[in-house]
Predict the structure.
Amino acid sequence: MNHTPPDNTISAAPPQTSARVWLLRAIQILAVACAFLLLLPYLLSPLYRVVDPVSTLMLWRWATRARVERVVTPIDVLASTLSRTVIAAEDARFCSHHGIDFDELRGVVKAEADGVRRPRGASSITQQLAKNLFLWPGRSYLRKALELPLALWIDFVIPKRRQLEIYLNIAEWGPSGEFGAEAGARRAFGKPAASLSASEAALLAATLPNPIRRDARRPSPALRRLAAIYTVRAASSTDIDRWSSVAIPPGRFKTKRLRQIGRLSVHLLDPRCWAVYKLARYLDADVDDLRSVLRRERLSPITLARLCGESLRASPRSTQLFAFRRHVEHFLETHGPTVWGKRFSARRAVAAFQRAAKIGAR
């Protein structure tokens, strides 16, 4: 009778990793990569307050060895009429909204629901900045869904002036890889962007929606008509550097009754309050009015400086308040001697303004 010995050998083959485990790992890696890509724009945006960025279209052209021409130019060097015209053409409420023009957005949604196609969309300059810096061109609901919260974040972390400066330096402004106002101006008019006239700035602004088909160098009659509209709009608007919103404290807001016309009571604004509102806008014509009224009313420079400081402190915090501070300090330092004479001390007046505004604590 034969007895077969038991087989006591142990298999040394490594365990097989199931396809399901590899699939789960791939999904995890993909999810982490997507989350990183979604968060990256929010991490980079604060850096662009001081770093000059490039657009995704510029990166794509570099990757495909296509031509890219750009000269980064500070907004102080660009013609001021260009900033005003671009705002008038692309986003008239740029200085007042918080990244998204919801009024314009509602209008576009209603028009599309009614089957009406509007000549331009509802994208604000901040939304276009988000698209140019981090997203892709073309119409896409996915892109819009990513663009809206990103525009709100950009407006929160980057001041309006800097937003416009970046936009003017990364916008596509020509059919052959010209990016930024400087490259666009040199291609179209053979001159730097600092020397643009109002009509030339309007032609450049009119090409922004489609610089491939619209040529400022050889403008069509339709492009010239559009540029003429933008010229008129820009002439009635204010420079971004000269726009701010300020609130006079209730206890310091004063008026003087002038006359009664039936049930209508006519009041005059106190000259000091009037001066604060003039300094909030601070156009060239306002400077002339300020000098004449302040001389006529013989208002104390320290009193005016303190009221401006209190108004600055009482106003809601916003990026535009920095413009108001610049307006006040510039007026006191530049025009103070012509208003109050040789005994006027700009240093004392500015110090009184800063103390009242508690600028060091803001």
